[in-house]
Amino acid sequence: MTCLGVAQIQFPFVTEYTFCFDLDGLFDKYAKAPHVSPTKESVLKALSVNSMTRFDDLEELRWYKKVDTNDYIIPKYIKDNLSVLKTNIIDDNYGLNRKGYYPEIFRDRF
Fold this sequence. Notes:
Layout: E1 2-3, E2 6-7, H1 23-32, H2 40-49, H3 76-85, H4 94-101, H5 103-106
Antiparallel strand pairs: 1-2
């Protein structure tokens, strides 16, 4: 069974590999995009805490986490080329960074 295109399995995982940018490429994408782009500071903060980019008028934040791809069913192309596709622009210490930026939410975590 699927819901909105996501397979209903124990560990549903959606892989978007069409937008894998290094940091310079990410800022270039935003500079050339025809839509309103987040500020550079907002992007850097989002990468630091591994969340969606925040706009000033947005109340909700979506938090992401790094996962071991061996625990998920992912396309063969991604599995075979992950080392090339990975951009490594998410801070490895994003859990601790969350505590620093959002202590009211992450006080007892990480």
